[in-house]
């Protein structure tokens, strides 16, 4: 119950919520039904969500690196593909 109150407090969204909103924005923009002002507003909101999601993914990557065990201790190992996608923006070309 306290989680629901925190979510409605308009603080930081959860990763899944941000991703769902980003998908909705993309669908709206692809529909061709938005005027220029709304298109720009959605683009700005989407870019903010992309930055938020990238930060969250980087945080998770760091946590995973810390949890990877090797032999008698913990050794940081990069999560496969994560560094390339986060650093490279996920797309090339």
The major pleated sheet works out as: 2 strands, antiparallel
Query: What overall form do the CA principal axes indicate?
Result: elongated
- The structural class is mainly alpha
Strand content: under 5%
- Unreliable residue stretches: 1-7
Quick structural gist:
The chain has 93 residues and is mostly helical.
Task: Describe, in plain words, how this protein is organized in 3D.
The protein is mainly alpha-helical and about 90 residues long. The chain has one domain. It has four helices and two strands, in the order αααββα. The protein has helices spanning about 1-10, 15-30, 35-65, 80-85, and strands at about 70, 75. A two-stranded antiparallel sheet has the order 1-2. Helix 2 (about 15-30) packs antiparallel against helix 3. It is elongated. The protein starts with a helix and ends in a 6-residue tail after the last helix. Mean pLDDT is about 80; it is low at about 1-5.
């Amino acid at each position: 119950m306290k989680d629901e109150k925190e979510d409605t407090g308009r603080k930081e969204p959860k990763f899944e919520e941000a991703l769902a909103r980003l998908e909705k924005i993309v669908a709206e923009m692809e529909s061709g039904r938005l005027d220029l002002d709304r298109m720009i507003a959605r683009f700005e909101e989407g870019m903010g969500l992309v930055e938020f999601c990238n930060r969250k993914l980087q945080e998770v990557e760091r946590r995973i690196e810390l949890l990877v065990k090797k032999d008698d201790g913990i050794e940081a190992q990069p999560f496969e593909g994560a560094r390339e996608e986060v650093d490279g923006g996920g797309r090339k070309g």
